[in-house]
Inverse folding.
């Protein structure tokens, strides 16, 4: 094949929009695996994230993580999970397709007692679907061979003893393959070469999109009855990329990487423009859902604004708009006010987090203060309300806990509100506060 494909604008845009979820998650999952020492590893973070976090856009500063990076090609992986003494814990599972499953959550009554859970894919060599394993309570079939299984834990940081107990329980999560459980050595995993990740998603679109997508196609389960799956496969077949094939640069189509990058960046800007726009408020309850419960429109949006997140049943992430309707800019200070009766309808906890708009990273500051909430710190007024100030200098009379430091400059900033275990019925009629520009 290897002939230059003359793709019109509509075809290029279709490829970008249908690929974005895979490009974003390929970057995220593989970067995390590289950072924590490879696949079939467990890493428990026992400190809240700070502005040095650059692996994922819009991280949070109100919960801790246990990252389990699973390679399910040759062997099922079993997680040994202790009881965790927190009022909020969830286990979030996602492969390169960016669909999200929550097989365990405190909302569902889990984490009260220890249990073992087995993970496999349709291609796992050493496991037959439905096979019962002694002492393993649950099985989970993943949609891909390379999977992130991430525990999100509220650390109760204000309670020193409880925080210590919770972080100890987090470090007790263990990973073992089925082969190891049966007393043999783990099967080696070093027989595979991953295409390079990109610093940004646009980098992949420009430099090695077809290589990445061929790798993805070979390690994902595609449903013949799923319209989104089949449209993706149809978009790539003319380019020489199909499931089960080895990537051969001499046989796939030659495509204009710079043009793909331009379209990807244009799509990114269009999706980011929806953040804080009341027209798209309904998105927050439709994101990060399992396969079969999402539209391409919502998959694209969630993959642009910052993978990975949770479905609305676990958490919602509305963006805070401004009272004047203009994007927030670090040239100005802002305040977000809530009266006692207007607090977010969260059964577990809530937080407001400040980011730079372009990259989705925390704003660097010496205080390492990036959020206001139960874990990031907050102080209610005598009337039970709160005023959260976003400012280059702490305003006089404002509690330290309620100040989000800003580095003055002409660049965009935005605020995301997170509600954990939200009351979705109340959320439907609750009014999200807005940021008011000061001065």
């Amino acid at each position: 094949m290897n002939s230059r494909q003359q793709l019109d604008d509509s075809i290029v845009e279709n490829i970008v929009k249908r690929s974005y979820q895979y490009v974003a998650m390929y970057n995220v999952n593989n970067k995390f695996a590289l950072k924590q020492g490879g696949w079939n590893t467990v890493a428990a973070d026992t400190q809240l994230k700070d502005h040095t976090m650059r692996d994922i856009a819009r991280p949070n500063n109100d919960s801790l993580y246990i990252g389990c990076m699973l390679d399910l090609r040759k062997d099922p992986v079993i997680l040994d999970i202790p009881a965790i003494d927190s009022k909020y814990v969830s286990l979030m599972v996602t492969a390169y397709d960016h669909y999200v499953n929550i097989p365990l959550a405190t909302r569902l009554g889990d984490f009260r007692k220890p249990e073992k859970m087995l993970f496999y894919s349709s291609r796992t060599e050493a496991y037959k679907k439905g096979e019962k394993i002694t002492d393993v309570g649950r099985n989970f079939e993943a949609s891909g061979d390379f999977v992130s299984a991430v525990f999100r834990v509220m650390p109760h940081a204000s309670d020193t003893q409880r925080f210590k107990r919770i972080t100890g329980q987090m470090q007790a999560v263990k990973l073992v393959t089925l082969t190891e459980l049966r007393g043999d050595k783990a099967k080696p995993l070093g027989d595979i070469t991953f295409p390079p990740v990109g610093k940004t998603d646009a980098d992949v679109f420009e430099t090695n999109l077809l290589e990445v997508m061929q790798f993805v196609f070979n390690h994902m389960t595609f449903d013949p009855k799923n319209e989104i799956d089949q449209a993706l496969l149809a978009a790539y077949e003319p380019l020489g990329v199909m499931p089960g094939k080895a990537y051969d640069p001499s046989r796939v189509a030659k495509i204009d990487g710079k043009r793909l990058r331009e379209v990807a960046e244009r799509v990114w800007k269009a999706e980011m423009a929806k953040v804080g726009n009341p027209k798209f408020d309904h998105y927050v309850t439709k994101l990060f859902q399992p396969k079969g419960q999402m539209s391409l429109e919502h998959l694209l949006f969630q993959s642009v604004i910052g993978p990975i997140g949770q479905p609305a049943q676990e958490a919602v992430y509305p963006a805070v708009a401004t009272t004047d309707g203009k994007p927030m800019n670090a040239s100005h200070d802002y305040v977000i006010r809530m009266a006692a009766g207007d607090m977010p309808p969260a059964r577990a906890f809530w937080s407001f987090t400040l980011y730079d708009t372009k990259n989705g990273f925390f704003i660097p500051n010496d205080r390492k203060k990036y959020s206001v909430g139960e874990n990031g710190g907050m102080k209610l007024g005598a009337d039970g309300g709160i005023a959260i100030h976003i400012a280059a200098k702490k305003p006089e009379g404002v509690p330290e806990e309620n100040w989000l430091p800003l580095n003055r400059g002409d660049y965009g900033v935005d605020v995301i509100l997170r509600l954990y275990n939200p009351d979705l019925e109340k959320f439907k009629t609750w009014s999200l506060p807005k940021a008011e520009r000061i001065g």
User: Anything to note?
Assistant: The chain is about 25% helix and 20% strand. Residues 9-23+192-269 form one domain.
